[in-house]
């Protein structure tokens, strides 16, 4: 039963822009490049935003019918939680240990923190010191079906509510221990109180071996644990931190935080805010937001789309490489400064660069090249060197120019094979050259 959910162009326009004259005017006041990118929602041949594909009757939209939420409904929601200058911090609380590998709990949650800072660009994200399960005082059980340990989601929410700092927009608990909401339920991926700004999410079932008969988290001799005896968690299995687990964790965390910002499950286009009923469906949804959900988050936080995408590329690129002088440390399983496993993020990175190309193309066409912004090209490998501040990752001016070098007040532009050279003596001249080259080299 594979089918794509295709909305009409008119329905998508109303969902994104609205029929309200005030909200239409608000949309028209956006940066031209940002509007051009969001308008990709209406293009049936768009390579950036695609329809949602349902593959079985167990997929979320089929199994859990719910009303859609367009931008106007989001904007006018009286219960929507909004960041304020007094409460603009996302707190992350790790519960239990993370990863039976070289990666420590602290390092893993630091990666998640950095991703959240980029995804929710403009918000402050802080880590609270990891705590063992015993500190929360939560109830727990052994699941009758999987024979693995589970902790009670509702008890954890109450613990987090008590611990929530006064400047918190929200506090989210993360764990690699399986969750259950009540005795009659088999499990739950996560649970949140949107009005209270608290949530708890488990990554246990994102371990590739979780549903395998050989899963190490199964208790060999399952028995009913003694109430309050948290020593049972001393040898609790936690999955090895892989690139795939990190990607799944980042998607889950940003999805659930999106709900706290007031974004409901997306039913417009393929989007990280889609609901998911099972792991295969969760893997299918992309890490990014569709234009309709992107406008919602943009409205909530007021960020520059280009700066946000640059921050996401920077997070992927930073810390992924291993310096040769540190290789011996890794062989000795030193848990400090380990490389970030981002191989699963490369397709996402290429997609972001395509979005940035759309944003920058508009600025170049209008002759508005902001200081510090150079055109990103998917596949480029060398960062440029220039007095203009280059943003994250491998940036270049276009497919022709691979290097910009400054000597005094002169900028030299050239490529590797030497068939293009240009020298200019002012920033204005440099921008003129970049505008001409980059605009010609971009498709469409």
TrEMBL record:
Hydrolase as a keyword? Answer: yes
This protein's source sits in the domain of life called Eukaryota
**Pfam families registered for this protein in UniProt:** Peptidase_M54
One GO term in the molecular function aspect is: metal ion binding
Family under the similarity heading: Belongs to the peptidase M54 family.
Instruction: Output the CDD domains linked to this UniProt entry.
Output: Peptidase_M54
Protein's job: Probable zinc metalloprotease.
User: InterPro entries per the record?
Assistant: Archaemetzincin (IPR052009), MetalloPept_cat_dom_sf (IPR024079), Pept_M54_archaemetzincn (IPR012962)
Mind listing the UniProt keywords for this protein, alphabetically? Answer: Hydrolase, Metal-binding, Metalloprotease, Protease, Zinc
Q: Name the coenzymes or cofactors required.
A: Zn(2+)
Keyword Metal-binding in record: yes
Query: A GO biological process this protein is involved in?
Result: proteolysis
Q: Spell out the protein name for this chain.
A: Archaemetzincin-2
């Amino acid at each position: 039963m594979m089918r794509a959910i295709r909305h009409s162009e008119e329905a998508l326009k109303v969902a994104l822009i609205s029929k309200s004259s005030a909200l239409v005017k608000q949309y028209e006041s956006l940066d031209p490049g940002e509007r051009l990118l969001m308008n990709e929602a209406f293009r049936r041949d768009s390579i950036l935003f695609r329809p949602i594909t349902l593959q079985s009757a167990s997929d979320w939209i089929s199994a859990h019918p719910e009303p859609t939420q367009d931008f106007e409904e989001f904007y006018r929601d009286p219960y929507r939680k909004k960041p304020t200058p007094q409460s603009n911090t996302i707190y992350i609380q790790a519960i239990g240990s993370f990863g039976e590998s070289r990666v420590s709990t602290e390092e893993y949650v630091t990666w998640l923190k950095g991703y959240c800072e980029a995804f929710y660009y403009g918000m402050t994200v802080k880590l609270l010191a990891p705590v063992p399960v015993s500190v929360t005082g939560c109830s727990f059980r052994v699941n009758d079906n999987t024979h693995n340990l589970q902790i009670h989601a509702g008890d954890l929410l109450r613990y987090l509510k008590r611990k929530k700092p006064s400047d918190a927009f929200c506090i989210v608990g993360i764990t690699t221990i399986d969750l259950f909401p009540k005795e009659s339920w088999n499990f739950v991926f996560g649970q949140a109180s949107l009005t209270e700004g608290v949530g708890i999410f488990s990554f246990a079932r994102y371990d590739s071996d979780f549903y395998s008969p050989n899963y190490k988290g199964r208790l060999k001799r399952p028995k009913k644990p003694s109430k309050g005896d948290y020593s049972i968690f001393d040898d609790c299995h936690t999955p090895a931190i892989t690139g795939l687990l990190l990607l799944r964790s980042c998607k889950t965390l940003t999805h659930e935080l999106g709900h706290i910002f007031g974004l409901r499950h997306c039913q417009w286009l393929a989007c990280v805010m889609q609901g998911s009923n099972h792991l295969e469906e969760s893997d299918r949804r992309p890490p990014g937001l569709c234009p309709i959900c992107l406008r919602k988050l943009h409205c909530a936080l007021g960020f520059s789309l280009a700066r946000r995408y640059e921050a996401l590329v920077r997070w992927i690129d930073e810390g992924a490489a291993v310096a040769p002088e540190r290789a011996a440390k890794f062989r000795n399983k030193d848990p400090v400064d380990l490389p970030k496993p981002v191989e699963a993020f490369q397709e996402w990175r290429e997609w972001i660069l395509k979005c940035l190309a759309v944003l920058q193309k508009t600025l170049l066409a209008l002759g508005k090249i902001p200081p510090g912004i150079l055109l990103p090209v998917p596949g480029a490998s060398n960062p440029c060197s220039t007095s203009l501040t280059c943003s994250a990752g491998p940036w270049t001016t276009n497919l022709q120019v691979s290097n910009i070098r400054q000597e005094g007040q002169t900028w030299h532009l050239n490529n590797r094979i030497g068939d293009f050279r240009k020298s200019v003596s002012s920033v204005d001249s440099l921008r003129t050259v970049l505008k001409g080259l980059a605009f010609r080299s971009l498709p469409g």
